[in-house]
Amino acid sequence: MKPAVDFNNTDAEPPKLRELRGTVESQHTGELYVANAWKGASAILVFEACSGALQKRSKKRTPNTPLPPRAFHRVLATQASNAAVYHPYGLASHQQNVYASSQDSNAVVGLNSITGLPVPSKTENLTKGVIFAASVDAGGLRGVAFDDNGRLFAATRNAGVMVVEKSGRISHHIPIMDSIGVNYSPQERLMFVGSPNEKSVFALDVDGMKIVKTYTAEGMAHPAGITSFGGVLYVAGHDTRLVYKWEIESMEFLGSFAVGGGDALEDLNLGSC
After folding, report:
1. Of the residues 12, 130, 161, 240, which has the maximum number of CB atoms within 10 A of its CB?
2. pLDDT digit string (tens) for 157-201?
């Protein structure tokens, strides 16, 4: 089979960015993957790895000079190359693959992070690359993330968070309704799940599959993107355009800061540069 796109063509112009949703830095390539969710041009876009941005630093710049932004590199997949890439929402990286959820098809598709070719499907009747498909009653898949055991955590509007084993079997339903963003912290072995319905972010112990911590803040009504680093939890407020911070262990609220731009915040990602 041929690759879904010409991934060697690094001079291609980026498609119009519209309705961006999930982002993830690939564990395999170090590149940044972005879900372009506009139904007129659904695609998984790829921006260069940190090493590429580092090479652009002028010799005259000091180490404290901000890096240039990551440049557009290539298109991993579109709806034309894979029907499951339609209105992509959440993105997750696991081993050499990137996975995307779809609000419309209730499916999660896996793609090789370099070629865009689909991973083997769990059953023959699924679209190529689809490793999991929820029922229509789930109300649409949103954020997705993997834990250290290779289990997929898929947030849904109506069915809480579904925990999917490597075999494709659903082993747990976590009753967090209207769940959106999910993010895994391997240091704490916690899966963070945001819910606008509850106006909170919950920390799920992936060993016991129990909610062990809850994070709230005044004014945070729609927690969207979630990430964590150095013992601190960061959550994007969809409507407030603020990023809220907590100390993970103590749940102490550390304040918030504003993000420029007029659009709602959909996702949050701390890259390696």
Report:
1. 161
2. 999 999 999 888 899 999 999 999 999 999 999 999 999 999 999
Six token digits for residue 205:
């112990």
- Six-digit token string for 83: 């029907």
- Cα 110 from Cα 98, distance rounded (Å): 6
Q: What is the spatial order of strands in the sheet that 72-78 belongs to?
A: 20-25, 32-36, 43-47, 72-78
User: Which tokens in the block code for residue 254?
Assistant: 């550390």
Instruction: Answer whether 0.85 is exceeded by the pTM.
Output: yes
Distance (Å, whole) CA 51 – CA 54: 5
Locate 149 and state its tokens.
Answer: 């055991």
Q: Tokens at residue 231, please?
A: 């013992």
Which residues have CB under 8 Å from 48's CB, separation 6+? 31, 32, 70, 71, 72, 73
**φ and ψ at residue 54, rounded to 5 degrees:** -65, -35
